[in-house]
């Protein structure tokens, strides 16, 4: 019982925090980022995942745009440690408001770690998608794939073009 | 033609007379669907079975020109009532179809079964014992959301679009307009994006799957067995702790209770027509738009029509999918052992299981060491043997019953005669 009630308390706290965060996002910056989250190493896919490479290992998460469009995430199905994926393979799912959204592996490699905090408290993805809400770490088998990804500026441009098309 | 059809399908008849191309006379039966295969725009009202040209709908060119950028629409009606087959059909279309220029509404229904969301725990949502006793299938689907009961009195609607075209509210509004147009029922879309009648009774539950394509599916309760529904979906979950997605319980109602003219058949026809007459922006295109669509098509979910369907179906049927995909959970129950002189409980023994991927990863027994004398040494040995034996075995409710049997047999030797044989039986049944 203990861990569950602790988890619930954490969840309640994170919800409080989340609403503060949300109220801080203005409509105009909905597709953008706050300057504090800027990270030169963070690269994005057109499926709205990000990879932050450190040596051979990349940390993977979803973008602010993605978490915002998904809404409250209630379940994170993350890939098992040790499993291998090719780029763009389906590697998990995030569930929010009755919709299961597929996660695509942004680069090829072997999963070396997943974020148990996110499994326990999926709301962390909404609350802190670039920091505490990371999903898993992957050892890249084809590091050159990083070159195909967008840096933050290019990703922002991509989001803008998507919004213009839509 | 009118004399052939019985009054049981009167509502369809009225519509049918407006759209004669959709129908062929149903000479032998009045109960089954009278919608016949079509592709009517280019082929007229042909009665030829589709099996002569598998997947024709999938590669066919548009029969009539449509407004620029407006996808054509088809209504597929599954001819199977088997939950695993229908889930496989849905998954096949999701994975293989290109919905950019051709959008699809799949209508289907099932023999009695319970369907749980992708990230749910069957034991937390369904009275699994009752389901097993009534030989009722519990099936895990690929979309999110909660648990629903299906039977022949329930219609399922799957709206397929490209990911960018996914819009649950618009789809549900199609259903509401259909119910209003055909039956004068004032249904509305709730804030949780379900369909309610008279403000609060839910007649439909929604869930969705998003990837490169998307689908939104929902149930429409027409004349389902609500007693069975509530008996099955209210299990005893004492002691179960899980992070799995929990269902949000809601009072439900059958459409038939609001208007006794509604049947699954005519609800199906009216929702199908409403879908065909609705532009992708949600506006009504009327009869004219219906004429431009590909229309209704009976779909036979076989491996011949949908190569690879059998494989998907067997995955949907497997233990690994239905139970093995259960998010990690624990089950803990406490039982009193020994009564003090004053009649108060002397101690509690607690039994805890940690279940990972549907298998018992850890089984523990807890009794304060100073109270161990309260437990008969043979019972203690039985219980220890039991918790060792169940490790790595599939979880099922019978394990709790066996545990209780072992624990209480010596306290109550008359009614319970539990031996190691019973442990073995219980494991064999797992």
TrEMBL record, chain A:
UniProt cofactor(s): (R)-lipoate
Keyword Mitochondrion tagged: yes
Superkingdom classification of source: Eukaryota
Span of domain Lipoyl-binding: 57-139
Cellular localization per UniProt: Mitochondrion
InterPro entries cross-referenced by the UniProt entry: 2-oxoA_DH_lipoyl-BS, Biotin_lipoyl, GCV_H, GCV_H/Fam206, GCV_H_sub, Single_hybrid_motif
Cofactor comment: Binds 1 lipoyl cofactor covalently.
Transit peptide listed as a keyword: yes
Main location: mitochondrion
Keywords of the record: Lipoyl, Mitochondrion, Transit peptide
Subunit-structure text: The glycine cleavage system is composed of four proteins: P, T, L and H.
HAMAP family documented for this protein: GcvH
Membership in a protein family: Belongs to the GcvH family.
Function description: The H protein shuttles the methylamine group of glycine from the P protein to the T protein.
Protein name as catalogued: Glycine cleavage system H protein
Organism (species): Orchesella dallaii
From TrEMBL, chain B:
InterPro entries: aa-tRNA-synth_II/BPL/LPL, BPL_LPL_catalytic, LipoylTrfase_LipoateP_Ligase
Domain BPL/LPL catalytic: 99-283
Pfam families: LplA-B_cat
Pathway per the UniProt entry: Protein modification; protein lipoylation via exogenous pathway; protein N(6)-(lipoyl)lysine from lipoate: step 2/2
Organism domain of life: Eukaryota
NCBIfam families tied to this protein: lipoyltrans
Family: Belongs to the LplA family.
Protein name: BPL/LPL catalytic domain-containing protein
């Amino acid at each position: 019982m203990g861990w569950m009630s602790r988890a619930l308390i954490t969840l309640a706290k994170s919800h409080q925090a989340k609403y503060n965060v949300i109220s801080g996002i203005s409509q105009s910056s909905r597709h953008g980022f706050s300057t504090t989250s800027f990270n030169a190493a963070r690269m994005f896919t057109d499926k709205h995942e990000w990879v932050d490479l450190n040596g051979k290992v990349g940390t993977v998460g979803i973008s602010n745009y993605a978490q915002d469009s998904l809404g409250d995430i209630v379940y994170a199905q993350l890939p098992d440690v040790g499993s291998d994926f090719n780029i763009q393979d389906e590697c998990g799912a995030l569930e929010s408001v009755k919709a299961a959204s597929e996660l695509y592996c942004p680069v090829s490699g072997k999963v070396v770690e997943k974020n148990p905090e996110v499994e326990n408290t999926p709301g962390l993805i909404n609350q802190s998608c670039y920091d505490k809400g990371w999903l898993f770490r992957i050892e890249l088998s084809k590091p050159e794939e990083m070159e195909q990804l967008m840096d933050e500026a290019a990703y922002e441009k991509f989001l803008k073009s998507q919004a213009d098309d839509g | 033609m009118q004399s052939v059809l019985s009054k049981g399908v009167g509502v369809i008849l009225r519509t049918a007379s407006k759209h004669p191309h959709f129908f062929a006379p149903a000479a032998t039966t009045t109960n089954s669907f009278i919608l016949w295969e079509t592709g009517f725009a280019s082929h007229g009202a042909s009665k030829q079975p589709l099996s002569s040209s598998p997947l024709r709908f999938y590669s066919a060119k548009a029969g009539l020109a449509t407004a620029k950028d407006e996808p054509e629409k088809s209504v597929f009606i599954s001819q199977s009532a088997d939950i695993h087959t229908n889930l496989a059909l849905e998954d096949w279309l999701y994975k293989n179809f290109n919905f950019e220029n051709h959008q699809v509404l799949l209508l289907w229904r099932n023999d009695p079964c319970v369907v749980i969301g992708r990230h749910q725990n069957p034991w937390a949502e369904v009275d699994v014992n009752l389901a097993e006793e009534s030989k009722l299938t519990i099936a895990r689907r690929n979309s999110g959301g909660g648990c629903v009961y299906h039977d022949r009195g329930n219609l399922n609607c799957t709206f397929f679009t490209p990911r960018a075209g996914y819009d649950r509210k618009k789809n549900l509004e199609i259903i509401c307009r259909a119910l209003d147009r055909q039956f004068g029922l004032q249904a509305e879309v709730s804030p949780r994006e379900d369909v309610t009648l008279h403000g609060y009774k839910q007649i439909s539950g929604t869930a969705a799957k998003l990837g490169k394509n998307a689908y939104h599916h929902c149930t429409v309760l027409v004349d389902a067995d609500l007693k069975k529904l509530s008996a099955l979906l209210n299990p005893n979950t004492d002691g179960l702790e899980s992070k799995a997605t929990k269902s949000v319980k809601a009072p439900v109602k059958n459409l038939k209770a609001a208007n006794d003219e509604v049947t699954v058949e005519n609800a199906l026809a009216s929702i199908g027509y409403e879908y065909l007459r609705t532009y992708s922006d949600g506006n009504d295109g009327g009869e004219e738009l219906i004429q431009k669509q590909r229309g209704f098509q009976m779909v036979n979910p076989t491996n011949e029509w949908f190569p690879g369907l059998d494989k998907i179906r067997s995955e949907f049927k497997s233990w690994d999918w239905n139970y093995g995909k259960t998010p990690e959970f624990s089950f803990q129950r406490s039982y009193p052992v020994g009564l003090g002189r004053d009649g108060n409980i002397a101690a509690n023994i607690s039994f805890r299981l940690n279940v990972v991927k549907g298998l018992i990863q850890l089984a523990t027994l807890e009794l304060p060491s100073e109270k161990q004398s309260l437990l008969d040494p043979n019972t203690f040995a039985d219980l220890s043997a039991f918790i060792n034996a169940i490790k790595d075995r599939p979880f099922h409710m019978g394990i709790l019953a066996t545990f209780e049997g072992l624990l209480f047999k010596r306290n109550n030797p008359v009614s319970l005669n539990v031996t190691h044989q019973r442990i073995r039986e219980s494991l064999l049944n797992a």
